[in-house]
Amino acid sequence: MIMQGTHDLSLVILSIAIAILASFTGLSLASRAHASSGKMQRSWLAAAALVLGGGIWSMHFVAMLAFSMPGMVMNYDVGLTLLSLGLAVGFTGTGFAVASSGLLSLRRVITAGMLMGLGVLAMHYTGMAAMRMDATLSYGRAWLAISALIAISAATAALWLTSRDHGIGRQGAAAIVMGIAIAGMHFAGMKAATFTARTHFDAGQGGMTLGQTYLAVAISAFTIFILLMALGAAALERALSAYMRRQARIAMRLRISDILRAEDTEEALQQVAVSLGEHFSVSRTGFGELRQAEGVFDYDVCWTDGSVPPLLGRLPAADFGVKIVGELGAGRTVAIDDLLEADLSDETLTRETARDVDTRSILVVPFRRGGQLHTIVYLNGRTPRHWRTEEIEFMEELAERIRLVIERNSAEAQLRELNATLEARVETRTHELQEAEAARREADLLYRAYFENTPDPLFVVRVEPAGAFIAEQINPAHETGVGFKLEEIRGKRVDEFLSDEAAERATAAYRHVVATRRIYHYREFFRLSGDPQQWDTTLIPLLGDDGQVERIIGSSRDVTRQLAAEEALRQAQKMEAMGQLTGGVAHDFNNLLTPIMGALDRLDRKGLGDERDRKFIAAALQSADRAKTLVHRLLSFARRQPLQPVPVDISTLVAGITDLISSTLGPQIDLMVDAPGGLPAAVADPNQLEMALLNLSVNARDAMPNGGTLRVSVSQSSVVDDEVSTVPGGHYICLCVTDTGTGMDDETQKRAIEPFYSTKGLGRGTGLGLSMAHGLAAQLGGALTIDSTPGRGTTICIWLPASGENVIERYDAPAPTIASFRGGTAILVDDEDLVRESAAQMLSDLGFNVKSTTSATEAQSLIDEGIEPDLLITDHLMPGMTGTELARSVLRQLPGTEVLIMSGYADAKGIDPDLPRLTKPFRQADLAAALRQLWRGRSELPERPIDGRREVLND
After folding, report:
1. Which of 781, 544, 603 is nearest to 683 (CA)?
2. What span, in angstroms and rounded, lies between the C-alpha atoms of 919 and 932?
3. In 161-269, which ranges are E strands?
4. Is 389 found in the same domain as 496?
């Protein structure tokens, strides 16, 4: 008995929806495979096969669950059911593989469509064979053929639709066709099926059950979930790929723009060809110029990836084929996926040329001049390739950017061919072309690079005939500065979005530009969040055809820091000038002190006068010593003393400068000194360190305008490498200055050691104090640290490396023993009369026969006359020949002569470092000590033919 079945309409609709969704998802994944290569392509194909095959099987299974026959109980063979799933996945994957193995020609589409259609048929009828029931299943041939026709034709149509374009609309249409094909094939197959009961059946059994419905819904839900997940993955990958392509295009545009700025056109085009080849991943790219009269293309620029030979020289235009040349001549871009398959390239000569140059796919953009084809830029691929619409459009965009360069190259070629009599005209034309190209590039780069990326606020204002000023453009920097977006103000009058005061200032400036029609520069002063700021603004008028101002382009710049830096530079220059003046004064003062100290020292040593006279002489000599110390400090201030690190007792140094610090601080600030004795010596330059300590004390004083406490402390400390990040590991003597002043915030601490940075305001400092202290610490191998809290005070520490050597005494050193040099001859050179007379007396007292001269030239004359001195003592800075130059000359003539250089400066600038020096002012004991160093280790003075036995200096 033939049985009649029924379908649950809701499950039927659900099965059709599954088929369409599975088709859309599978085709989407397949499209990703088509856009990929290698392992990624195989992964997408496998995913597409699983998704579409599983979806087909799920649709079939849900549709079978929707089918029921009253009185007939149906079950399914698990093995055959799984086999039907495998067939669906396998045939679908094979079909996708065929479709993605190359460009989708009609033959390949039909083959892939037949495979997918057969997969649907095999899955369906294998699934039908898996049915277990007490009935015989047979099929009607007509409906069986119809089901096969539906499956194959619809699958082929869907593949054809999706192969044409990867747009969402085309994919949706293809998915609907494929889904209808799957569902149509299924229900056509069910129509072909005839169920004949083998035995009597009970009508109360069979039929649609609640369990079937639940199972169908569960399978559908799971299938839809899997499909949506796969679809989401494809969409995400597509979005990421699109983003990467956009970024690559942006980079390509910038690279092409940079290349086209080159002066050498040929080199620029060669680099463009390289960039095009790498960006589009083709085997060959280049340029060709059509010689119309000769009917040939002249290929002079070509790049290849090494897999194909370069295309250079002249080739007949006919080798392209009439169809392709016709398209190019009409100004249309030619994009051919496969030269051996496409209709546009079906000419025999075209395909022979393609084989000769090893090319299967081409993308050619024409350049026309005077209505005729002039130049082409081309991309070649060795394998078939589907040129996407976005690739073609981007290539056309780049070609337009290149066009002017091609035209320039062509113009240069024409210039070379012109008669020499036309040289002037050709040069003019070339100049015009270059200016036009430069203007185009400048305008393009100005808008893209400068207007959009400059940190300076830029704006454009339109001038209305009625006199209103309308905002047209502002750049991102302007948006950041004013706090509103372009969309918020475009088309509005400036008085509609600016404050009354700001609008009044702006419109006044705009009216001035309109009235004068000239560029206008002005400076504005205002406060933003309480901080005073100064801005320079430039307004540029743009005139219309009638000569009136139509637009105003404006640019602004915050010059607050620049003005502060300029003021700091002026202060620094002033301080440098003061330093130079101080150095000069100190030098002259040293020359004045030398005879004073020499005379007082001589009187003191001879013990002349009564006790009261000797006391006055001693007091005067002590004052002279203090003046000498003061001069040394002035020279340190003038930075005329080089860094001379020696072992120094820091506690003693602090004690020696305490009085000076106290007098500098004033009565409102209490000075506390913690400088214990017994600490190891530190490596330091005493003079420079004193100046640094004085600078830190002055800074601390300025930070306590209402008074407070200044503490100077000296301590010993050891640092492990990772203990304090700013101080290298080692043993240190730490000199710290702590105040109870205003303190510094984090930002100020970060910039405190920058040169010229100051928080004291204009005119109250150079901003170099901390910078100099930091540099001193770094030069000595130590560091400078800052610890400050706003409102509580600041501690600045100079970390000086501990020294393993003994301290070199600097203060109140005992006078050296004065020995006699009886019979020795000394030549004394100094252009200062008082200094020369004082030094001559000291040398005479030491036993020398002294010959004094006022210049190095006179001294050289004495040497040339035959005098052989035991000692040459000379000033350094003198008119004409310097003391150092004289010393070198004498040592060349008389190598055994001892030389001593005197200088009022303490630095060694211009003085040979190997020459002994004596710094002015000096006493006779200082001179004797210097001479002892000259003759150290020698038992006697050298013998001269005219001299007798000489007494020598004993240590």
Report:
1. 781
2. 16
3. 193-197
4. no
Angle of helix 38-66 relative to helix 168-192, nearest 10 degrees? 40
Sequential DSSP letters for 84-141:
HHHHHHHHHHHHHHHHHSS---HHHHHHHHHHHHHHHHHHHHHHHHTEE-SEEEEE-H
The amino acid sitting at 909 is K
Rounded to an integer, the average pLDDT of 753-779 is 66
Given pLDDT bands bounded at 50, 70 and 90, which one contains residue 539? very high
Half-sphere exposure of 581 toward its Cβ, with a 13 Å CA cutoff? 6
Alpha helix positions (H), 454-559:
476-482, 486-489, 494-497, 500-516
Contacts of 899 (CB under 8 A, 6+ apart): 871, 872, 873, 874, 887, 890, 891, 915, 916
| Average pLDDT value for residue range 272-300 | 90
Residue 429 domain flag: no
pTM, to two decimals:
0.35
pLDDT digits (tens, 9 = 90+) for 915-941: 888 888 888 888 888 888 887 645 445
pLDDT tens sequence across 786-799: 898 898 899 999 99
Strand 313-316 relative to strand 334-336, pairing: unpaired
Largest CA distance in the chain: 161
Give the pLDDT score at 18.
77
602 in any annotated domain? no
Token duo for residue 521: 């520069």
The structural domain count of the chain equals 5
Per-residue pLDDT band for 26 (boundaries 50, 70, 90) equals low
Inter-residue contact 840 to 922 (CB < 8 Å): no
Q: Which residue has the higher pLDDT, 252 or 311?
A: 311
Q: What is the pLDDT of residues 684-695, one digit of tens each?
A: 888 788 888 888
Which structure tokens are listed for 712? 């100077």
Does residue 743 sit in the same domain as residue 868?
no
Same domain, 795 and 830: no
* Burial 603-620, CB ≥16 within 10 A → b, else e: beeeeeeeeeeeeebeeb
Q: Where are the alpha helices (DSSP H) in 260-369?
A: 265-280, 322-329, 348-356
Residue 420 has a pLDDT of 52
189 plus 221 within the same structural domain: yes
Q: Strands of 469-474's sheet, edge to edge?
A: 469-474, 458-463, 549-558, 531-543, 520-528
Domain that holds residue 710: 642-801
Helix (H) / strand (E) containing 224 = helix 210-259
